């Protein structure tokens, strides 16, 4: 059914999209879609890096070790509204 889309059908679909959403909103929608893709990519990269780090054994509570540093994942440089701090889970919080 969908394998037979030709040029006239694609043009008709694009015209309907422009009529539904309006030409002014389409660039904003594309921009937000790009931001979402960057956020997804950075989160996936952080999860991949988190999986590659060796696990540290749990020691006594007062070993003098410092808590892990807090990381901030940003979607785009200078985009303060989408950055958030990320805390690493400790062995005592895992259940």
Provide structural commentary.
With 95 residues, this protein is mainly α. Helix content is 45%, strand content 6%. It is built from 2 helices and 2 strands. The protein has helices spanning 7-21, 25-52; strands spanning 71-73, 84-86. The longest helix is centred in the middle third of the chain and has 28 residues, at 25-52.
Characteristic key phrases:
95 residues, mainly alpha, two-stranded antiparallel sheet, 2 helices, elongated
Cα-atom radius of gyration:
23 Å
The beta-strand count equals: 2
Q: Per DSSP, what share of the residues sits in E-state strands of 2 or more residues?
A: 5-15%
Number of helices, counting only DSSP H or I runs of 4 residues or more:
2
Q: Unreliable segments (pLDDT under 50, ≥5 consecutive)?
A: none
Instruction: Give the structural class.
Output: mainly alpha
* Run of helices and strands: HHEE
Largest sheet, in brief, is: 2 strands, antiparallel
Strand order of the largest sheet: 1-2
| End-to-end separation | 49 Å
Envelope shape: elongated
Helix content: 40-55%
For the residues shown, what is the average pLDDT? Answer: 74
